[in-house]
Amino acid sequence: MDRNPTLAQWQLAQELRRMRGDRKFNEVVKAARTTGGSLARWETPGDRGSVPGPAAVERLLQIYEAEEHLERILALRKEARQPDRWQPFDLDRSYRTYANIESQATSIESYQSQLVPGIAQTETYARAVIEATLHPTSDVDREITVRMERKNILKRTEPPELWLIVTEGALRQQVGTPSTMANQVDHLIEMSQEPYATVQVLPFSAGAHVAMRIPAFVIMEIDPNGVAAVYSEGQTASMFFTDPEDVTEYKILFERLRATSLDEGRPTRGLLENIAQDHRREA
What we know:
6 strands; 12 helices; alpha/beta
């Protein structure tokens, strides 16, 4: 796998928080001669966190009486400061963090109410989505390249376990031409037959459901690193949730969506085939 500075930062933040243990936050701030905001960011994984300097790392490990881990922690810190594969694309920080975590994920669970998940989009469908939603000054071709590059994780020898739940409304909404939609739904059918992928459709007949007020979320896990995160994308801001209680809450939410959606296999495939046929009739 590619070097992943985001994963290194994630692990570094978790290690520093673990090493602090039950020591009082303000006492550590004072002893480390830093600020509360700095220590909080050093202990925060993801796009809201930051990487401490080597001198700060050394002071913290002295405070934590963990100097024997200094070499390993400094190596993690060095890796976290390296450029990643997405740097040339000039992505915003949240999206870049997402792409880095996704690239290493061993498990991805995605719910989408308005769109086909990015990792399952055809290039034509992705272009129609990006052209409709990006800021006028954004580089559409760059965004297409990134989205298609992200899909390469499915070509790995051991791809992530992928579970997609998409609403029927997202699949019937015409994005691009009817042919674009028919081909996109066909692609979902093909994906559903891969051993690593499960696709479910949340049908109109499900009625009111537990995620009606949530447009989309993705749960990603990386084993054996113990990394788990929920990503929720918004119009003006995107958020990562890394607190174990938050991740557990979203996992319960996803399980309830699984139970409400059509069973994987023939029930979902039958509806997907009908939707594809409806789009072809429109074409």
